[in-house]
Design goal:
Layout (H helix, E strand, L loop, with lengths): L9 H13 L2 E2 H7 L6 H13 L3 E6 L2 E6 L3 H16 L4 H11 L6 H19 L1
Antiparallel strand pairs: 1-3, 2-3
Helix pairs in contact: 2-3
């Protein structure tokens, strides 16, 4: 199944974060890991929605369903970041990068700065090609 990037609600993102950390979980386990959790039936409904969107699948384990993420976490991160950049930064990756740099309270260590320089250099090379 091909999953198209879809907007996830705050609660859906929370559930996906829990499933990515755990690898697999029942709806009761998901609910227990949520901050200020909604009702059990609301969690089940959210899991069903995530399944309809193609982000999770379930397996039956005796009388309970175990939910497993179907979207690779790296793909999900890129999709979420693309949504944030489009929504809050008018599609400008450089504006988003500037905001990240400005909000980094502790600054960057030498390894992080070297990685950023490398990424900028690679982007310049691709632009010239």
């Amino acid at each position: 199944m091909v999953v198209r990037p879809t907007h996830l609600s705050r609660r859906e993102r929370q559930i996906m974060d829990i499933l990515y950390r755990a690898g697999r979980a029942t709806s009761a386990e998901v609910r227990a890991a949520m901050p200020d959790p909604p009702s059990y039936s609301a969690v089940r409904a959210l899991l069903r929605i995530l399944e309809e969107k193609g982000h999770v699948r379930h397996e039956q384990d005796a009388a309970r369903y175990v939910f497993i993420p179907t979207v690779n976490r790296a793909i999900a991160k890129r999709s979420a970041l693309r949504h944030v950049i489009t929504t809050f930064f008018d599609g400008s990756a450089s504006q988003a990068m500037a905001a990240l740099v400005e909000m980094s309270g502790r600054g960057f260590d030498d390894d992080e700065l070297a990685r950023l320089r490398q990424l900028v250099d690679e982007a310049k090379k691709r632009r010239k090609e």
